[in-house]
Amino acid sequence: MEAVGWAARDTSGVLSPFDFSRRATGEKDVTLKVLYCGICHSDLHLLKNDWGDSIYPLVPGHEIVGVVTEIGSKVEKFKVGDKVGVGPVVGSCGHCNNCVHDEENYCPNVIFSYNYKYYDGTITYGGYSNIMVTNEHFVLRIPDKLPLDATAPLLCAGISVYSPMKYHGLDKPGMHVGVVGLGGLGHLAVKFAKAMGLHVTIISTSADKEKDAFEHFGADSFLNSNNQDEMEAAAKTLDGLIDTLPVSHALLPLINLLTTRGKHVVVGIPTKPLELPVSPIIHGRNLLAGSCVGGLKETQEMLDFAAEHNITADIEIIPIDYVNTALKRLEEIDVRYRFVIDVGNTLKSTS
Q1: What tens digit of pLDDT does each residue of 249-270 get?
Q2: Where is the chain membrane-spanning (predicted)?
Q3: Interval 12-39: pLDDT, tens
């Protein structure tokens, strides 16, 4: 079926209108009209081929929400008119150990929402487009209580911080958890952590975000990571860290904040390798871990938790033709706290 989106054609990362085709709705497929799509920092990396694996033309977007317009003959979970979402994962083998344990995101044959080859050899295109066609297993139900626009970022940013908190046991009331970086992922990490009953410290290089940290997000404490005295005073106080920074940064000052057996979980993906100081990890019996989004079951659990606790992203809604400016602003860290494209109202056909 005919589709329209915005795509980059080269490493300039500049997006412009792009006509392409989606597959027809298969018997297990859900077709949705895309209404909103969040802008993730990984979109910026892939648009500019920062990780060396970009496939052009490239239509980004993996924080996708909309309304079901058509279902296949064997679809059981959804009906036309349902509010649904599609996150980063749209395919997996279904039978490996990861898939069997509801961790499709770690499947060796995982297929991501864009910039990947699908089963039929075609390239996947993301949510900066008017329609999506996705196997029902990889479609998520958006709870009625949640607004679609501010829910879109939960499908990547939200699950990226919720999953490691749950997996590493950093979700027990009274625990002291630090959130490194108060951006698209970081602000949601604070919201989830507070809803879980945690004591939350925000660690940021942006002193101007301290007011937001306390007054808007309800943080318990704030550390300016450029202030050595503050960092040293907080040494050995945190049970865990959720490190959301998508840029290269020093790990040693952060690891020094951990208690014995504390866990430092990295969820941001810098373009350059981080330097790993082994000695403090050994002497603190600390764990340095990574985490990549979440499986479909856990992502649905996260959405239901968000609905129960009224958790949504703080967003700036933009028209599709503002997207290049938004990406430039994102690169300059000029957004509080997530851009969301109003696809449904502003994306028009080029034909």
Answers
A1: 999 999 999 999 999 999 998 8
A2: none
A3: 999 999 999 999 999 999 999 999 999 9
The two structure tokens encoding residue 54 = 């970009």
Minimal CA–CA distance to 146: which of 192, 83, 89? 83
Q: Judge contact between 69 and 82, C-beta under 8 A.
A: no
Crossing angle between the packed helical segments 157-167 and 296-308, to the nearest 10 degrees: 100
- Angstrom distance (rounded) from CA 234 to CA 262: 14
Mention the CATH class of domain 2-155+314-346. alpha beta
The model's pTM is: 0.94
Q: What is the CATH number of domain 158-290?
A: 3.40.50.720
Cis peptide preceding 253, ω within 30 of 0 = no
Closest CA to 240 of 296, 173, 177, 324: 177
Domain(s) of CATH 3.40.50.720: residues in the chain = 158-290
Q: How far apart are CA 107 and CA 326, in angstroms?
A: 32
